[in-house]
Backbone:
């Protein structure tokens, strides 16, 4: 069953518990973020709506919802996935980017991991076991985080939180 807007609200609620409020950690390549949205993403959103840029600290909940719906939920094809996978895909897109999330999905469903949604990905995703696939997907995400921490030691500070988020998501979707 494809994900719905109710699933978007469910996914958003889960993810926002982990993304929290305003942070500007010098080790974070995303720089200043609020509710998981970087200043760069917020600037692009405001400019696309003919609005002046401002600090991401001032982001409204409506802007958060708009950005997450269009730039993450829709862009990562979450509405086209079974609900469990839609929630996992959304959280991964927010945390790792939509292209990386798509590669996780493709690896989990067993098709070419090119980061692009196409007929093969759609067919494989529609015919998979959502809970089993979510478990495989989250295993891929854990491996990715561990590789980042090994390759970029400045990111080691984030590893425990990333792994806790994945464990919480795994429990949340029953994977």
Residues:
């Amino acid at each position: 069953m494809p994900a719905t807007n109710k699933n978007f609200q469910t996914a958003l609620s889960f993810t926002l518990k982990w993304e929290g409020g305003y942070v500007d950690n010098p080790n974070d390549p995303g720089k200043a973020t609020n509710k998981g949205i970087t200043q760069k993403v917020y600037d692009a959103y405001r400019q696309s709506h003919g609005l002046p840029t401002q600090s991401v600290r001032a982001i409204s909940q409506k802007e958060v919802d708009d950005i997450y719906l269009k730039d993450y939920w829709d862009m990562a094809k979450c509405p086209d996935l079974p609900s469990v996978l839609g929630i996992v895909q959304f959280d991964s897109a927010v945390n790792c980017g939509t292209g990386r999330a798509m590669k996780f999905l493709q690896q989990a469903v067993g098709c070419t991991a090119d980061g692009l949604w196409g007929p093969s990905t759609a067919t494989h995703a529609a015919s998979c076991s959502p809970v089993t696939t979510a478990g495989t997907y989250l295993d891929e995400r854990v491996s990715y985080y561990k590789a980042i921490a090994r390759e970029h030691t400045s990111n080691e500070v984030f590893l425990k939180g990333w792994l806790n988020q994945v464990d919480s998501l795994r429990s949340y979707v029953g994977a």
Summary: The CA atoms of residues 45 and 66 lie 9 Å apart.
